[in-house]
Amino acid sequence: xxxxxxxxxxxxxxxxxxxxxxxxxxxxxxxxxxxxxxxxxxxxxxxxxxxxxxxxxxxxxxxxxxxxxxxxxxxxxxxxxxxxxxxxxxxxxxxxxxxxxxxxxxxxxxxxxxxxxxxxxxxxxxxxxxxxxxxxxxxxxxxxxxxxxxxxxxxxxxxxxxxxxxxxxxxxxxxxxxxxxxxxxxxxxxxxxxxxxxxxxxxxxxxxxxxxxxxxxxxxxxxxxxxxxxxxxxxxxxxxxxxxxxxxxxxxxxxxxxxxxxxxxxxxxxxxxxxxxxxxxxxxxxxxxxxxxxxxxxxxxxxxxxxxxxxxxxxxxxxxxxxxxxxxxxxxxxxxxxxxxxxxxxxxxxxxxxxxxxxxxxxxxxxxxxxxxxxxxxx
Length: 379
Fold this sequence. Notes:
Blueprint: E1 23-25, E2 29-31, E3 34-41, E4 46-50, H1 52-58, H2 67-78, H3 84-96, E5 128-132, H4 137-148, H5 154-173, H6 175-185, H7 189-216, E6 221-229, E7 232-239, H8 248-275, H9 280-299, H10 308-317, H11 322-334, H12 345-378
Antiparallel strand pairs: 1-3, 2-3, 3-4, 5-6, 6-7
């Protein structure tokens, strides 16, 4: 039996620990049957996971509370006090990682220590890699936000979203006509190259939209560049602290921003298609652009990794590693394994909901592909 008295050692009881300004804490996230919090050191880019009890303590280390006061709050919450050895272990861990104010920064840990869903440093090379387009991605995004951030105000965004919804209803109503002109587009190399160029530009705006909305909510952008897997070249914009944005709604807004930007990009072309006096070939090419652009945007909302829809689903479920956790739980449940009952109620509900949503999404995609193929074959 331990003889260590409860509470911090007398010499530490009045110590007021304070996390460095470079430390970020996430909300509670489901991971398998557990609940975890992510902690990130933005100074070196490392992140790791802790449980709810550790997070309870660390989140209160703001320099205003003594260890004795934090320990008292912990005792009231969990019904027990931490002994001096446990306090020493926690402070040593935080100090070693350089997370306390005034502590020296540690060397970056290996990639295996990183938290889930944190983008790895892109590969760079000739045939497969990436290149940065700007020296200071965060400053560039800040300038873009100052120029276009006013569009995020409800007075602008609500009418724009209404126009997007009306456009998508129109696309759905005239889907047969748009499928026919899209088929014809692939027989005209000049117009096809033009449409492909516009769609590529739309993907670039998609990536920048993620960064601008994240910046609007206090996020930072680590890198803007081009990534290639020849012959495909795409633009990317890495939001450095996506999982640490202030609220779940802000994270969902950041994730959905790309698809919304794709659809907003189509609005002027939709207006030209409807109202401008164009020659038949150009008119039909614009119709094909509307269909292809709409498919491009909606495809990004499919809830499978690594698409934006998966990030949205993860936030709605309040989970990290959602797909893997769902598969693990559903396998246990299908085998009637008693371990499935060990999952807390919110986790079971989240994984069942995501599993059902994934099946419905696959069914909807298959039905759309079959319907489109049938229409193209019969016309």
